[in-house]
Fold each of these.
Amino acid sequence: MAVVADRTGQIGGDDILVFATLRNERVRLPYFLRYYRNMGIRHFLFVDNGSDDGSRDYLADQEDCSVWVTNASYKVANFGMDWLNWLLRKYGTGHWTLTIDPDEFFVYPFSDTRPINALTDWLDTYDIRSFPAMLLDMYPKGPIDAVPYVEGQNPFEHACWFDAGNYMISRNQKMHNLWIQGGPRTRMFFADDPLAAPSLNKIPLVKWQRGFVYTSSTHMLLPRGLNHTYDTGGGEMVSGCLMHAKFLSPLTAKVEEELDRAQHYAGSREYRAYAQTVGKQPDLWCKWSEKYINWRQLEILGLMSKGNWA
Amino acid sequence: MTVGFIMMCHTALDRAAQVARYWATSGAPVVIHVDARVSEHDYSALGRSLADLEDVSFSRRYKCEWGTWSLVAAAQSAAEQMLDRHREVRHVYLASGSCLPLRPLSELTDYLAARPYTDFIESVTTTEVGWTVGGIDIERFTLRFPFSWKKQRRLFDRYVEFQRRVGFKRRIPHGLVPHLGSQWWCLTRQTLSAILQDPDRDLYDRYFKRVWIPDESYFQTLTRLYATSVESRSLTLTKFDFQGKPHIFYDDHLQLLRRSDCFVARKIWPKAERLYSTFLAPGNGSSVMAEPNPAKIDRLFSKSIERRTKGRPGLYMQSRFPKKDHENGKTSAPYSIFHGFSDLFENFDGWLAKYVGARVHGHLFAPERAEFAGGEEMFNGCLTDSAVLRDYNARAFLTNVIWNSRGERQCFMSSPRDNQDNNWFTATDPNAQISVISGAWALPLSRMNENFATIRREAARLQKRELDHLEILRSMYVKARVRIWSIAEFIENPMEPLQTIIDEISPRSTRRLTEAPQMVDLAGFGQFLQNLKNQGMQPLVMGDFPLDEGARQTATRRGRPYLVK
């Protein structure tokens, strides 16, 4: 990993930091940065995995971004987590850290009226060190590639639909995290093999300490006490969602490229499944799809919870 | 005559300074206590920022730790300073650095001037409080607490347990009746000086130094000795959650706070810029002399505590995944399972849908697909009819069906042919109404065009599954509303049980059943059962079904609807 731009000296003691890996996301970056700056993120730490679309230069020019580059294999690096774990340890220790992909948009209770440090201050008073946010796959109505995404645009202007109530949860006995599957990807691409359907459980917001490590993407961490982000006695703990702007044009091109690289989880079976299905049946929308309004709607639907934060 | 504020500060000193300035410039003297752990740098910065205000002074600094005497000591010395320096003060108001005045000072002084001899301090006896931390109430006053509850919880608990076992009891000083309450009070000069100048103060102080959380009991108890008129409530709006932590106010609470008509609120998030700028702006006031009314805020916070402790029944999600039997509602709403009915009656779901205000599905757990009502391929929440997905997590499928259709009762058919994974779950779910006609599964078999050996094997398999299910439904763990008839029993008099079930589903509907569902042709069923028996398979779940049911058939002949009553 080589440094492209190191502005980590600017990081203040209370700053909340975003960590992300990316590859060829240039067109998405302006909105991504704007979204998280508005939320109150003060510094971004990116690992660029061999972009050739100008992503790296664009980020290196941003005053609040530090950028590293590597051309090594995403797959060998435990799907990028080795790079991020190293950065988290070095720069994240003592900070609230938000580890996400460039197509993931964090929402939490009151995110429309309270900045993210209202949440982290509150978590601090309860000595809560990790915060869950389930991945919520968003999709447009009609073919995914029908409306091209324009730089700077809110991706959820078109991809504003989601599945509200077809999620399946079980508990991972070894790591103690919840394993959540379901949503449009499961029902469209994995109906014959649900075991292989993608995991939607994520714990992206963590008050990082030395010794913490993400083990499998941001689905779970060690020590495993950090995965106890749910109540087992009937109550609800606070949680958020990661709105997933994956189904955005140009998807078909992206799927082809990613299949070519074969750098994804479990032999890229997810991308293979898309390639098989997206061509012939591109509409994820159905009449029961829910149109996104705001976080309160997600709360009422039971996808996230305010818990005792009022 | 005016009111003087004591402010207990340890963080967000800039906000405390803002509030102190607001009060002081409005004409109320302020004494600030700054925690001794605050750095000298921050402390002197605070002093400099308020140096232009004559009526703001700083009291002797104590290192304040939660639940310890230091908080009382700090309040005592600040109160003494207030009473000594500011003769014009009639009421002394204890506030914190994260308090925010919601109404102009003049409204508070008018309010207090109208009640010149009233002490506002929440002060209740230990038997009346339900909010004590750690289940310790009167024992706060009778045990010793040398260990920190926050840092040495195990030692703390063990030592309490030990004292209980050996029957240790501290003696409460004569004349004191222990009272508890919020530490944010507003006392009159008379009462406060009586407490501070009491000849027995040394005795009381020595005693309270070893009481647990004395800041919630020292003034609350001693006030009762001297006060002429105690209003047992705090003028400060502050709400605690189930862990004893104060709820925090943010910008989006602005309207709620404004309408509460409370004088002071805590705790305010230090970065709630809009709250500070709005409430500290000059001319902010209601002009009417309203009584504080925090009911709306109370509701908001008690709802949030309930969400955290009890949650929404029947919801399974990323931050609520209850252990078995801790669900507080295995499902979110009542639902009905009809087992065997679709085998005995033709188009039973169609008939049922006419009589109940509910969504009537076919066999949701059929082996081929989930038979949603109306033959739909998808259901609320984007559930699909895929049997593979459903069987991958049958419980999630069921709880999702019920959760996604909140507000509408769900009914579905079942049979031993269907997925049986949920049998324990539904049997132990108080929301489930399970009606069983046992043995009805054999009716379709009796009309099947298939080798009898194959039919017999299938009959044996289904009977085994039904027996397993019935065993569950007859166990002592059942919480569902379960009714079981054998097919022989049921056909004797089908209308009465149907009426009972339907009345239970829609209790307010007074509609009587006017039309019976159409029963399938039972001719030859008795013989079929006899054939099974002859072939060595004992039918166990059909009840006493006669070999020749011809006589019975006259009463329930198909195609002859009849009226009940």
Amino acid sequence: MSEVIRIKKGLDINLKGKANEVFSKAQMPDVFSVRPDDFHGIKPKTIVKDGDSVKVGSVLFYDKANPDLKVVSPVSGQVIAVNRGERRKVLDIRIKSDGNFESEPFEKCKPSSMSQEQVKKALLDAGFFAFIKQRPYDVIANPNDAPKAIFISGFDTAPLAPNYDFIMVGREEEFQLGVDALAKLSGAKVHVGINVDNASKLFKLTKGVEIHEFQGPHPAGNVGVQIHHVDPINKGEIVWTVNAQDVAMIGKAFMTGVLSFSRSIVLAGSSVKNPCYCKMVYGASISNIVANNIEGDNVRYISGNPLTGTQIPADGFLGAFDSQVTVIPEGDKNDEFLGWIMPRLKKFSVSRSYFSWLLGSSREYEIDTNVNGGERAFIMSGEYDKVFPMDIYPEFLVKAILARDIDKMEQLGIYEVAPEDFALCEFVCTSKIETQRIVREGLDYLRKELA
Amino acid sequence: MKALRNFLDKVKPSFEEGGKFHAFRSVFDGFETFLFVPNTTAKRGSHIHDCIDSKRAMSMVVIALIPALLFGMYNVGFQHYLVHGEEASFWATFLFGFLAVLPKIVVAYAVGLGIEFVVAQWRGEEIQEGFLVSGMLIPLIVPVECPLWILAVATAFAVIFAKEVFGGTGYNIFNVALITRAFLFFAYPVKMSGDAVWVAKDALCGLGSESALLDGVTGATPLGQVSTGATEITNALGSVMSPMDMVMGFYPGSIGETSVIAIGIGAIILLWTGIASWKTMLSVFAGGILTAMMFNSIGANEVMNLPWYEHILLGGFCFGAVFMATDPVTSPRTECGKYIYGFLIGFVAIVIRCLNPGYPEGMMLAILLMNLFAPLIDHCFVQANIKRRLKRANR
């Protein structure tokens, strides 16, 4: 095992509403929704329509640019709507569950005894490939690429994030098979990043992976940070990243011969009465798990963590890559008087013009969705650098993106980053600049221009 | 507060598009966001945000300036009574200074904020709070006898040509307050330098002394005296000053720049809150001290012979190092760049003082010069980062 990689820059935001490590029983909802937008980079061609019967693993849409790349139904039942927006863009596909989770056939076998082509076909047909992301561009991976490495992050440091040690318990074999499949598929080395403070027994027992130990605050758990410190991406190189739970999900299919898109999620946040873990399926409506479990009526539901997640309605759906539902108060009715000069002892800030830095790191904060100020040009300097643990100048990169200067973006390291890496920059920004949106637009622009 | 909120909500529609007072939208907006934290919520990206905003950052700087401002007011009164040879109570002294300085603050804010409001209205943007700091800095770096109309012209020039034409707060290349001073210095040299402008001589609104000046009053700033060949630094009455007097700051000079103690309190506030960069501040002093020592060893003229600590204590060195050099917008954006930027400010300031006696106040020119070089300093560090990345790729 290599030495511990210490991440010094970053920020742990200690939010109220952490979940106890118990699974509560959650009833599977009736309605599921698959959003093509969750699978960034895919140009969806929908092949189901209202009334079609689907099973777990039935193709809902595929990528126009790469017809082998399919996104499948997480549930068996009936398609009840294909909702379209402007220019007939598919917003989501709604499926009513029959409650049986009947699966399309999947051949049960050991990936290590299969050929690369067989594994690839199995993953593509089962719809698992859409859960592999690539860098650069932070999009769904292209099956025809040969990545130089695969990275799996074995922990999540985002606020209120699930504890992987807890949710992966008992999934050793599934994870091992998933890793075997990915190794066979890519022919590349599989890296797993673990937190030195966690036991991470499951990951340490896994064979055929290279383990890297990290220590430090968020975003140490971001796979992008781990790639940067282990094997950074240069121009022309491709790295695939897979969520640890999705690796186990792939492995489980090889182990049982049944497709299942079930995963453990955490319901957390200061507006949740009883924050807990539960088993869910991607695309599931959250209405069951949040029912009678929310304090206050002016709250925001987020699929994902509060830094990078997506806002969803109270009867919204779990995103394809999310294993967290966060509920926090809305901040649209604060009417705070002269807030810019008040001591605001209950507020959290990294700035020492507030007092939260004196009150210790164990204090938990309730943060609402208020932006706490108006958007400005870049004024304060060095703020981003303090929470961006890569050898990249985040502010200069953001400026290069705003200027749409492709050369500069490349030179400043845009191939290594994803919007989520800038989430903390956005959080601490005095000027309230939407850095994640800017980076997303920059990646999309670059991908389009260089295609 | 509820009543105030309700009142704002009631009058708000008349300031919006099509309303009666739409022409004052930016003004209303400015006051509303000033009174109440806006209720905007995050729509995309991060759902939670740190509670620091630019209003708070800017007001911290204004708060840090208050000790220097209060002392400056007192010193204006003190110098006035000193040169008239009269004794006055603490409050009479302060009140005189207050009356002398207040119009300058009012003029600077009225002109600057007026332009900001008009530009914000014209661009359809929110009012930006950058001028809150500039408007407080400007009165502190001018001589007390600077006429108000000249101050108004200079402020307008600086706000329009140093800031708004570049795009407003955050886009300016030069420090706005220093451009104001530079404009005054070069456009109205008679009113801005020499021996006559640093002490308020006339009575104000019935306050102050009506009697004639004492004999032997000079009214020259310490650096002015040294640059004209004086070997001993004296106060306005001609008695020799000790280093302790220089720290206290009871001598003629720009309104806010004389007291090292008051500026020190401001520096502590800025460093405690982390609003100003300690890297810049520290390296300005390091650069200044080392350069002054270097010139001490040459010693070709009186300014070169000035001990290093007097270089630091006198003139606008401390004020510039604490409040001007640390302006984040006109400083380098890279952390390492700040060391070089600060060091060169200190270096250039002393070089100007020593080698060009025509400009005894080198700090202003040094900071403006380095403002110009800040992007170049950044460029070097960014280029090094780019080279590192290329090297990694070619390995």
Amino acid sequence: MLLTAFWFFASLMILFGLSVVLLRNPVSCAMSLVMCFISLAALFVTLDATFIGIIQVLVYAGAVMVLFLFIIMLLDLRTEKSRRLNFGATLGGTLVVAAFLSILVQVINADPALSKALPALPPGMPTDVKMIGFTLFHSFGLPFEVVGVLLLSATVGVIVLSRKSLR
Amino acid sequence: MDLDLILYFLNIPWVFLLWTTFLKSFIFLNLTIIVVSVTVFAERKVSAFIQDRVGPNRVGIPFTLIGGKKDSFFFGLGQMVADPIKLLTKENFVPGGVNKFYFWLAPKLVMIPPILVLAVLPFGSTLFGVEMTIANLNIGVLYIFAIASLSVYGITLAGWASNSKFPFLGGIRSSSQMISYELSMGLSIIPVFMICGSLNLNEIIDWQVVNGWLVSPFWPKGFSVGSLLHPADALHAFVAGVSLQRLLLWIPLLISFVIFLVSIFAETNRLPFDLPEAEQELVGGYHTEYASMNFALFFLGEYAAMFAGSGAIVSLFLGGWSCPLIPDGSHGWFWGLVNIGVFFVKVSLLLLFMIWVRWTLPRFRYDQLMKLGWLGFFPIALFNIFLTAVILALVRN
């Protein structure tokens, strides 16, 4: 059941990923990317990582892509002219993807432990939210706080830069 | 087919899960649609009452006016049926120059998210041992936020696809409004998680059944019908329910409740925050160019979102299906049905409150709306989290 859902959403994701690249209307591309993110969230859910899946929808599909769409609409981008296929770029892209795939297959085949799917939650952990909170604040407490300070300084920087009169 | 065989088949765990889920979805969805259509009618009646008018009272139930003496049969309740028939039979006019696909897609995208939210709302305790939640998700609250954050696409795309100035301005306004209020809405309920220790709506309600609704400052623990007859028991229950921690926690919880309630108004584009469709400035906002059932989907989507938002408020702060002196569904199917009724009564009262606010308060100006969201609610919600943490750490129960 879950395996069927996994393959269904995986193929859906690839389909929408392709349409992001191939469609010519910028709004269609943005909406395809939204669908791609939602399929990715569904993939996470089939792998028992519900929290990551929901956050994927909340942050990327619900907030980041709305801003993308906002900007596409404000700039009033029209449909691109259908261009001729750039042979060199296509060949290069295919080569890079093929190389990446072959490395991935080699890595997975190298260690027999990787071919077996492990449960998402270790025994004794009730929910994945608790698991993530425990990992972040227990094992990686200091790095987590440092990243928080980094983000805060970036936010303050944005506010300072966007003020109209700089002294 | 043998009856025993059918019963055996229906009791296989996954088949049981499948058909009960379908049945629950079907019943809850239909109840919701009935409540939504009654709300549309109530909106007109309540607005008429507040403005000292009569309101719709002409449409009766067909074939019941034998003799033709009274034409105000059932207070004009037939209006609920007449409205959708009118909207369905109107011409679906599509103006030239619109982006056809997105113009067609946008109303559906407005209607879908509120219906998806219904999946995690616990609308009753248990009935015949079956849990009255369609999907008991571990992170039900976050699911509601994730789905609600998708509802902005319908309105934004409607504004863009209409290829016209006023809808476009409405769409832009709505997306910035929804993004702004999502933040304070998400932050405002973190105190609830800290106190209940769970993101699961069912567990939050179970916590409230034992420890009392989150908006109340104290709660008579173990108060039952039996203790009503014995004043000493009732007094004991009241004294046991009062604690310093609970009284202090009431302050942040009340702040959370108010911020969440107001944010729901902003998220559903209700007055006093209906800037995206402000008639005096934007004609009809994002749905200016829409006609017939496409328009009705925007209209019904707003009411469905009100229902889903009220359901979330009821589950998070007002005890969900629970009510003092009423046992839960494990005491028999009758109490299970009563619990479902309690949930719908609470939601209906909140919907009435929303309608009342709409016809009482004037509309905000756009800069006031943004100022309230970013400079008012956002810092207060952040401060509220710290306040809750301090109270939980310093004052032991």
